[in-house]
Every structure is written in C-alpha cells, then in structure tokens.
Amino acid sequence: MRVLIVDDNASMRILLSTLLADRGHTVVGALADGNGVMEAVGNLAPDMVCLDYQLPGRDGLDILNEINTARPEIDVLFMTASEGAEIEQQAADAGAAGFLRKPFGQKQVIDEVQAVVATREHATAANRQEAVAQAERPAATTGPAPGRRPSAVIADDNGSIRLLLKGLLSELGLDIVGQASNGEEAVRAAQTHQPAVLFLDVNMPVLSGLEALPRIRQVSPQTAVVMVTGSASRELVEQAAAGGARGYVVKPVRPAYLEAFVKKLFNR
Predict the structure, then answer these.
(1) pTM for the whole structure
(2) Rounded CA separation 199/152 (Å)
(3) Is 244 within the bounds of a domain?
(4) End-to-end CA distance of the chain
(5) Element (H or E) spanning 177, and its range?
(6) What is the rounded CA–CA span in Å between residue 91 and residue 101?
(7) Partner of 71 at 20 to 30 A CA spacing, among 64, 94, 104, 244?
C-alpha cells in the first residue's frame, strides 16, 4: 500500500515511516503541514493518508473532508492528541477509515493499519465483482434479480463511506438498489425502492438521519432502518429506537461487525 504521512512532528513522521516500511508498505511522501496535502495526493497517488489533526496551514478535519470528497477511494487514518471524544466522532462521520489517539504504541499503529487495509480489500473486491456481474447481465435484465437477495439503500453524505458500505454489503449478499447523499434523497429512495434495509447516516445535510427516519418509516414501513454513526451515545440510541430504527452501525465500519449485524438482522 502506498502511504502519505502528514504530521508536523518530525519524530512522528520518522516513526510512522519506519513502521509502515517494515510492514511492506511504501511511504510515498511525508509532509509537515496541511497546505500541500491535496497537491501531494494528486501527484503521489497514495492509497492511504496518515493525517494529523492539528497542523500548520490547514485543519486536519478540513483536509479529511476534501480528500473524501475528491478521492473517496483513498483511506484516511486520522491521528490526534486531543483527549475529547468529539474529534474522533467528527473524524468518523467525515469518513476516516481508522483512528489513532496520541501517544500510541507500535502495535496500535500496526493493528489499525491492518484493520483499514483488510476493510478496504473486502470492499474493493466486492465492488469489482459486482461491476463485472452488472456488465455481464443482458441489458434487459440489468439490476438485481428480483427475490434473490435482500435489497438495500445506502444514505450517507460521504462518498468514501458509501463506496465502502456498498462493497461490504454486496459481499454479504445484499443488492444495493439505491444511494443517497442527504436525508431528503434517502426518503425518496426509500419510497422508490421499498428496500429490505436502509443504512441511514445520522449527520447529513437537508435532513438529518433522525429527521428523515420517521418519514422513511411512513413511506416504506417494511424497510428496516439502520442508523450509521460516529457516536453511539445513549441519547442517540434512544432517539433512533423511538423512531423505529432496527439498530445502528458505528463508524469506522469494520467487516466482522457489519457481517454479524446483517446476519442478526436477517436471522441468518
């Protein structure tokens, strides 16, 4: 995997470069501030960016949002020394593929990188298989075969998370029949497709997930709505349950957790 490191601490850049190289990854660049990150992403074509939160020049969260908007196929491993949970939740909602809280040990880095790589490999392989299957279907039968697999809609304003969920859910045997990037689109997709399950991001523009939830339940009452969130606070869980949600998935999404959840949801 090709990795770009962005951290204003020289010792941290050296540590991460050494650890990643020892695990067989290629460090394509190491930057000390946030101003040149997007240019480096374009020139160096990394598969992963190890991105610090507090940087000279640009805020790490701002960079994370831009990477996930412009290049959703790139995984961002977000790093911070902040002790509050709020930054981690914001990074997860913005599409961070993994998270490291400083100070961290070597094992934490290796384990988190491995988790990010494994998740992306699962999603990428499934997305490729689905693309091949779609291309091989006759034009008249393009789309999911009726009755074969449970249908699903993914609603998230982050393109990276939509791409990841699409791959992971396809691998688990679901047909992705629609996607949405805001709450209003999610309601329309639910009404149009009447999916078996709808994965609904909590924080979205136009309508939040919690605002869209009762409308989705109204237009598609048979749809199981699953909240997707960077923060599974007690208040959120209670609000979602009261609105009729069947459960929640916490970001960053991991294949094993999602598989167990889907199996439970469909009694497999």
Answers:
(1) 0.83
(2) 8
(3) yes
(4) 35
(5) strand 175-180
(6) 12
(7) 104
